[in-house]
Amino acid sequence: MFNSLSDRLTDTFRNLKRKGSLSETDVNKTVRDIRMALLDADVALPVVKQFTGSVRERALGAEVSQALNPGQQVVKIVNEELVSILGGATRRLNLAKNPPTVIMLAGLQGSGKTTLAGKLGYWLKDQGHAPLLVAADLQRPNAVTQLEVVGERAGVSVFAPERGNVFGHDAALESGEGTRSFGDPIDVAIDGVAHARDKGFDVVIIDTAGRLAVDVDLMRQAHDIRMETNADEVLFVIDAMIGQAAVDTAKAFSDGVGITGSVLTKLDGDARGGAALSVATVTGEPILFASTGEGVKDFETFHPDRMASRILDMGDVLTLIEQAEKAFDQSQQREMARKFLSEEDFTFTDFLEQMQAIKKMGSLKQMLGMMPGMQQMRAQLDALDDKEFDRVEAMVRSMTPFERSHPKQINGSRRARIAKGSGVSPSEVNQLLERFGQAQKMMRQMRKGGGGMPGMPAMP
Ligand code: GDP
């Protein structure tokens, strides 16, 4: 998902990064490139317009920053606008003060509602809730059975209507008409909520019927279920692969049923991602969750900021930059930039100073988690201990000023003294010196190459 959009945007920014300043022509060209990239990704036209309009205006008004060059500033703006069209802040599930909380799932057939019911149930159960799935999709002959299977897999109870009432050869049912008279989904939903109240389930997830295309009956039925069960959340479930059609569908459900949020499914696919980028803006309601596979655990809370970073392939570097801007004062920034550009080697004294500043920014683990590429290294990151940071600091503090500026001169006896002084083993001192040597080497290479990581300012 988003791969091609990511590549296009990254290319656009790469061209900008070489520039010392941005002219209006540069901004216009960039905005044009972004517009094409979004349209090719199937993002809805009104959303594209709103997005590029804001980016253009802000890029021309260029918010001046000491720490970012013009290219990076555009990246920052695009990132913030992406977060905004994705819905802004992370939206948590609304739980009712008086349980049971009623969550209704609505959307087209095949969008992934039934699968989602299982995932949501599993997720809630994992958090100590007692969820109940209610099978109010009486349209598709095997929908009830499917929900039962899903429920069993997730270890979550299912409330299903009496089979005899639901299935049978009824022309009206098969033609999709007259569902109210024959196994009424609205009654099932109401009974399901009553059952939950009786039996102490605190969250009810109602799976409703979908059609292949939006139709009036479907909307009315979903609307009635919503009203009759007094649903706390009505989640519009949308297949992220459906492209431009997403807009009309989303609007139809939003107007016809009234929704409180959306859930994106099939984000694991290789679709271009237009629905994902359009739905929050088109419906005016946030995206709460993302479904990323067929397994019951392939499900996550949707964070607009993380999704934006993923699209821009930058980890959460912008938060890092902002924190760095806060932690390093301007004279420190200038000194670091000077040092970086000069031929002088990076010393342990610089390192200690930066460690102090980084400490002000938060935990090392948290910060590393924001680096690009770190998502694939979750396990290693989880194993990381922030105390390690303190040990490194103790070692550097045990060095003399001469040693800090001349790491290569730290021989065996000096190493032993440093280890003793900081209460670590000599091999830890060796490791630190070795890694520091590598870092120095990397810095020298970066200077020669004229750039570091994409989107990063000259920050070691
Ligand atoms: P419903 O008609 O809205 O209830 O949709 P279903 O839950 O039956 O899902 C339709 C199909 O999409 C099924 O084959 C699911 O296994 C599949 N599906 C649902 N969610 C996802 C997802 O996040 N990723 C993938 N790859 N497939 C999904």
From TrEMBL:
Reactions catalysed according to its record: GTP + H2O = GDP + phosphate + H(+)
Region: Disordered, residue numbers: 402-430
Tagged with keyword Ribonucleoprotein: yes
Superkingdom of the source species: Bacteria
Binding site residues for GTP: 107-114, 207-211, 265-268
Keywords associated with the record: Cytoplasm, GTP-binding, Hydrolase, Nucleotide-binding, Ribonucleoprotein, RNA-binding, Signal recognition particle
Comment on protein domains: Composed of three domains: the N-terminal N domain, which is responsible for interactions with the ribosome, the central G domain, which binds GTP, and the C-terminal M domain, which binds the RNA and the signal sequence of the RNC.
Task of the protein: Involved in targeting and insertion of nascent membrane proteins into the cytoplasmic membrane. Binds to the hydrophobic signal sequence of the ribosome-nascent chain (RNC) as it emerges from the ribosomes. The SRP-RNC complex is then targeted to the cytoplasmic membrane where it interacts with the SRP receptor FtsY.
Protein name per its UniProtKB record: Signal recognition particle protein
Gene that encodes it: ffh
Residues included from the entire protein: 1 to 460 of 544
